[in-house]
Structure prediction request, 638 residues.
Amino acid sequence: MHNNKKSHNLRRGALATAVLAAIWNLPAHAIEVDTGNPDLAVRFDNTIKYNYGVRTESADDRQLGTPNANDGDYNFRKAGTNVTNRLDLLTELDVVFKSSFGFRVSTASWYDKAYDNVGSNSNPYVNGNDATSGILVPRAGAPATGAFGSSHLSNYAQRYYSGPSGEVLDAFVFASTEIGEESLLSGKAGQHNLFWGETLLNPIHSVSYGQSGLDLAKLAASPGTEAKELFRPRNQLSTNFVLNQELSFAAQYFLDWDAARLPEAGTYYGASDAVLNGGQSVLLQHTGTPGLLGQNQFISVRRGHDTTPDKHGDFGLMAKWSPEWLDGTVGAYYRKTSDILPQSVLNGEGLAQSGGVAGVQGLLASGATTSYQLAYADDIDIVGLSLSKNLGGVSVGSDLNVRHNMPLSSITTFVSPYLAAGGTGPLLGSILPPRTAGSGVVADDSNGYGAKGDTLHWTLNGLMTFADTPVFDAATLLGEFYYSRWLSLDDDNAALFKGQDTYRGVDKVTRSNFGVAVNFTPTWYQTFPGVDLSLPLSVNSGLSGVSAVQGGGAKGTGNYAVGVGAAIYNQYFVDLKYVDSFGKTESCVNGQTDGSTPNPLDGEEDYTCTGGGYSSFSGGGAALEDRGAVYLTFKTTI
Prediction:
């Protein structure tokens, strides 16, 4: 009887430890507060981080000449420019009663002096807050105000980049209870995170895609940010049931939705001036035969209302099996999710009621007929499997998932019943149905925006540690391979897909793609009294093909970092790091190129672009290739 009781206590202790670790997600230097009550545990921490960054190369002239992708380059144009001077504070409070009940609250606050009064008056094309709709001509050498809008950051970007400001991250309650001798039921309610699967470095291909809105803007603006700060907690209900030492189950139901945070227009890493909250206009140009637009004229299209998914309804189910003979864990997943990355839409429904060519001309000239918006798809089904296991001293993890109704990389959709039905006129040129083969005109949004289909995604990673060698005292090596393939293409809006023959950009989708990410960190202990030195090296690059999903990678496109770090008494951490990106671009020569997306408002549907600029990019790395920077980071927890 005594032995059975002891075994039960050991099992209960192991289960409780696992659950509390998942609940808290505590830092290594968590401070326990002495409450005087053995049943009450309180932990309170403040992580302070200071980051200073300097641009190491001047802006690329062609990037400056690309109207919808140059605001950030103009705002931080010269080598030596301070791109971040930021102070961050992460505050965490965890309260647990009898190891079974409690709550967690965490907040982030920041201030970045480098973003005070950001805005370049030398930029002839800005996509700022006060842009005017209609046909415009850029005023070279004149202040970038009035017709093309304010060059300063949006209020949203000012809050999240400049500050001082802050936000609540985690805010949830939790409870757990034992059931019988081996089972444990736990749950959380409120704003928190869950991340399923084994993917470590390529979340776009993970089974957890869409489970959280990733704060990619914070990572770009503040290198060294801890992973838990990048995940955007959502309001949700979740539960976990440990049946025994081999089987466990989990479920979640979302009460909110949040998009990924990408670098905003006008910020240093902003690769697009039209997306998210910073961009408030997009510039469409015609440089061919004068028609609706004259030579070097633009239509400035104002931002409309974005289409976002319902806040409620997304959910996920998970089961994990850890049989003794496997010495590892197999996971199975089903998730119903919404996208966290947007597709772009031009709304020209007013053309259907224009009353003829004159009305079309008048509406286009005033800009009243069109607006642009971002659209986020919903009803994505993800079915996946995962495996984690130790093989020969290597900790191996793998995800395999298939997605149904997944948004695919698409050209901009133009919603116009008039043009889709074959509306014509001398000012618009000869417009023949279905037109979706070229410019992406559709009659309505009943089939959603952009192309969709089924995709397959696979990741495989391994983590190795090295002991003392003649070169270093210790080291960690983490590598992850990713592969994706589009399996099928839905008929609805299929012509918008960037994998079609009608699309000629450098980011033209291939059937399959794969790439690799590697982090290698050698360490030298006690190089100086109380100081451990390390040399973190990382690279993430596409090796073949172009992914059918946004952010999925492309051959020769990615980023890398080289740095040196110091851990001082294992409490103060200093890093000096160089960060840069790379990729392929398509240049625009004399306004004509095979690499540009056709302009749906151009009368001849020409593949036009702005001479001296870029017409297409292989991915985010290509659009940021000229933005190498050095960062000095200091971090400590008190």
The first strand starts at residue 32 and ends at 33. DSSP finds nine helices and 31 strands in the chain. The mean pLDDT is 81. Residues 451-583+618-638 form one domain.
